[in-house]
Design a protein that fits this description.
It is a single chain. The protein is α+β, with helices and mostly antiparallel strands. The chain has one domain. The protein has helices spanning about 10-65, 165-170, and strands spanning about 70-75, 80-85, 90-95, 100-105, 110-115, 120-130, 135-140, 150-160. The protein has a five-stranded antiparallel sheet, with helices on one face. It is rod-shaped. The termini are far apart.
Amino acid sequence: MKGHRRDGKTLIEMLVVIHILGVVTVMCATIMASIMRIDGHNRTSLVNTTAHSDLSIRFRQDAHEASAVRIYQIDKELMGLEFSTGPETAVLYTSNEGRVLREAVDGDTTTQRDQYPLGCETVIFAEAGENNSQIVLSYTKRKDRDHPDSPLRTFHMLAVRGKDLRFQNIAEGTP
């Protein structure tokens, strides 16, 4: 009598393969969810870092072009900063919902409006130095926005009102 040869798989073998594939699928889904969460955090961090850098550059440029500076209280918690750049022109800075807003105005017309999403909780404008020639923009934000108990971090931007002498000295070749 010849031996009976099986060419197919048993039901148990098929169930084991399906179970293994299910475990692998769950592991892949968990890893992908973690990667997407990390990617979202990195994108938020990149946006905040870029906004901080762009704001720092614009803030210093506006301060250097300003002939006068005025800091004012908008309400109990909100401050504003006005750089006068000409008889009818000014640049206004305010904060709103974690963003710093910059508006260039000419008379009654807003000529340019920029928003810098910093994820900040508070923004403070101050003047310092001789003849209040230095303008400081400070803001605080949580180290981890998802955890309200995480420590606060404070960032400062310092600019000098009037002409930026550093660039003039470099252009003239003096240290």
